Input
Amino acid sequence: MYNIPVILGSVREGRRSLAPAQYLVKKLQGLGHQSQLVDFKEMPLPFYNAPTVPVVYYKTAYPDPNVQRWSELARSAHGFIIVTPEYNHGYPAVLKNALDWLYLEFEHKAFGLVGVSNGSVAGARVIEQLRTVIENFGALAVRETVMLGPIDKYFDATGKLLDDALDKRVTGLIESVVWWLKKLQA
Ligand SMILES: Cc1cc2nc3c(=O)[nH]c(=O)nc-3n(C[C@H](O)[C@H](O)[C@H](O)COP(=O)(O)O)c2cc1C
Output
């Protein structure tokens, strides 16, 4: 069993990505994995403002207590699932900033990607952009993805699940992450 936190890419008031992220956490736990929501609304990070690169702080301590918390959380993870909206065909600044703060914490780990959108392209562009970022960590984004667009088809505004077929897709994504985690740790 693995520790697979779910990173939420939106801190917006009324964010629709919250429901699928919470769903993923519950699903992972139900499958016997350890998981928690990583929510930068609850754990705000400064915009990257350190005088040097993050690897320097990895061995000592980060200059900000929330970044230190984020580092410890990421360090103890085997892999990650990112649930994120697409903003202007790319990743939200808050998500990229959180990824920029760390580096070695992600090395040789596997990421599953879930895109959220109110449109029919369903976050496909943000998912593809994140692959190149994740690759730079010496990490791997698994081929399988879950794209939730339009989000209204899958969860209503109160967070209620509307499509039972989502369970199979989410299970497939988790299975793929776990498959890679086994390979990476072999
Ligand atoms: C700043 C901003 C930019 C957006 N750009 C896109 C976009 O490029 N593609 C898209 O499909 N949806 C876009 N949307 C709409 C989002 O898909 C929609 O608001 C979704 O609910 C965002 O997720 P969130 O509610 O978790 O923040 C954008 C929304 C915002 C706030």
Notes: The mean pLDDT is 97. The domain at 6-184 is CATH 3.40.50.360 (Rossmann fold). The first helix runs from residue 18 to 30.
